[in-house]
Amino acid sequence: MGKKEKSLKNLTIYITYLIVFWGFYRLLIKLPDQIEEVFIKPILWLVPLIYLLKIEKEKISSLGISLKNLFPAIYLSLGLGSLFVFEGLLGNYLKYGGLNFSANLGDKLIFSAFGLSIITAIVEEIVFRGYIFNRLWKIFGKEIPANLVTTFFWILIHIPIVIFVWKYPLLDSVIYLSLTAIFGAGSAFIFARTQNIISSILLHVLWEWPIILFR
Predict the structure, then answer these.
(1) pLDDT tens digits, one per residue of 74-121
(2) Residue among 194, 189, 198, 184 nearest 65 (CA)
(3) How do residues 169-211 score in pLDDT, each as one tens digit?
(4) Per-residue pLDDT tens for 155-171?
(5) pTM of the model
(6) How far apart, in whole angstroms, are the C-alpha atoms of residue 36 and residue 132?
(7) Three-state SS sequence of the chain
(8) pLDDT score at 91
(9) What is the dihedral of CA 192, 195, 200, 202, to 10 degrees?
(10) 30 CB contacts (<8 Å, ≥6 apart)?
(11) Residue 195's closest CA among 41, 101, 66, 43?
């Protein structure tokens, strides 16, 4: 079995595990966000990924974890991130018929929510852009198909929380998942330009922060 075939096999197993296991987790278990995002998700998502890196004999730099293109990564993420801040506010506006500045402020501290968004961004971007997109790009040899497939799985991984946790009605679900798809494609696009996961992490925080604050 060649290197691409092995990579595709490992990738398929990991994605299947992630979609199925995390979907059942969302269905059956609901813990406080601080516990899920700080402890549960990093363990369930990153430990298997570390194991895959070990058997593939790859370094963490293969996930885009490096200082390469650091400043372009920051500039690009801040530039595109401003659009995703607008996107998050637009989603809130469409849901509530106006910006809802008090939806979560009563039960969440602002800085706590911000710190939570950083941890979530680190875990999810390492997995989806650093590993899944990067591996698919090497397998396909083309950026766009890799981006589209990664974005598809990015949407899938968010469906359980929309249905089982937030219990959004159909219209709200479609709006949120559409915005999620736009972000996923944009994150992979900027990662492809920089090859640095910091760009995707910063972009993720800028996208998720308005959603956390105003959801």
Answers:
(1) 888 888 888 777 766 776 676 666 666 554 444 445 567 778 889 999
(2) 198
(3) 998 899 889 989 999 999 999 999 999 999 999 999 988 766 6
(4) 999 999 999 999 999 98
(5) 0.90
(6) 22
(7) CCHHHHHHHHHHHHHHHHHHHHHHHHHHCCCCHHHHHHHHHHHHHHHHHHHHHHHHCCCHHHHCCCCCCHHHHHHHHHHHHHHHHHHHHHHHHHHHCCCCCCCCCCCCCHHHHHHHHHHHHHHHHHHHHHHHHHHHHHHHCCHHHHHHHHHHHHHHHHHHHHHHHCCCCHHHHHHHHHHHHHHHHHHHHHHHHHCCHHHHHHHHHHHHHHHHHHC
(8) 65
(9) -140
(10) 165
(11) 66
Q: Token pair of 38, please? A: 């700080």
Structure tokens belonging to residue 167? 């219990």
